[in-house]
Design a protein that fits this description.
Structural class: alpha+beta
Oligomer: single chain
Shape: globular
Number of helices: 6
Strand order of the largest sheet: 1-2-3-4-8-7-6-5
Strand content: 15-25%
Distance between the termini: 33 Å
Radius of gyration: 17 Å
Number of strands: 8
Helix content: 25-40%
Length: about 190
């Protein structure tokens, strides 16, 4: 993987933003940063998300008369295994260059630690297939593929140790609930 694409992931996890776009930003603000090449999706009048390829931003609102409020973003890193660098939004590629089809969590975690951005393991409902890691200051979570191919249906071309997705925000309250609910399971499982 090129150092530039690794820098993108490090920046996103450390800052909790995508090129400065925060999970709480309005749709107009995100479009200002990432551009107008997106697919807009909605299941009802109260939620919407925009798919910028690897990046998705989500919004909610009280009613059709209220403005959209930013809810979260997700970097669907696993999509790169099939689509490669062409799936990455042009604004991101312009700044960071080519992206590899795989992002290894151990490499990402080492680079974050060198930058003084530690990741914490969090017990999660998806274990042992997927593990959850969390950066407290930025409230970013990283899901990592952990199951052997024989333990689950293989999807795409993912490998054990690959980052599956990165999301923000994940609150300290959510992490505390997950630790309380799944911590014992992880300790005995």
């Amino acid at each position: 993987m090129t150092p530039h694409s690794l820098a993108f992931y490090v920046d996103a996890v450390a800052s909790g933003t995508v090129l400065g776009a925060k999970p709480t930003d309005s749709p107009d603000r995100v479009t200002e940063i990432l551009g107008s090449d997106f697919a807009e999706n909605s299941l009802d009048d109260y939620s919407m998300w925009r798919d910028y390829g690897m990046v998705e931003f989500f919004w909610i609102r009280e009613s059709p008369d209220h403005p959209w409020e930013g809810h979260h973003f997700t970097l669907q890193v696993h999509r790169l295994t099939s689509w490669g660098s062409s799936l990455v939004n042009q604004a991101i590629r312009d700044r960071y260059g080519r992206f590899d089809r795989h992002l290894r969590f151990d490499k990402l975690e080492r680079l974050l630690a060198k930058r003084g951005v530690p990741m914490e393991y969090v017990p999660d409902v998806n274990e042992p297939t997927i593990t959850l890691h969390w950066q407290p200051a930025s409230e970013v979570s990283v899901l990592v593929v952990r199951a052997h191919e024989s333990e689950r249906r293989r999807r795409w071309d993912e490998r054990i140790g690959d980052v599956y997705a990165i999301s923000s925000p994940v609150s300290a309250e959510y992490v505390a609930r997950s630790r309380a609910r799944y911590g014992q399971q992880a300790a005995t499982g």
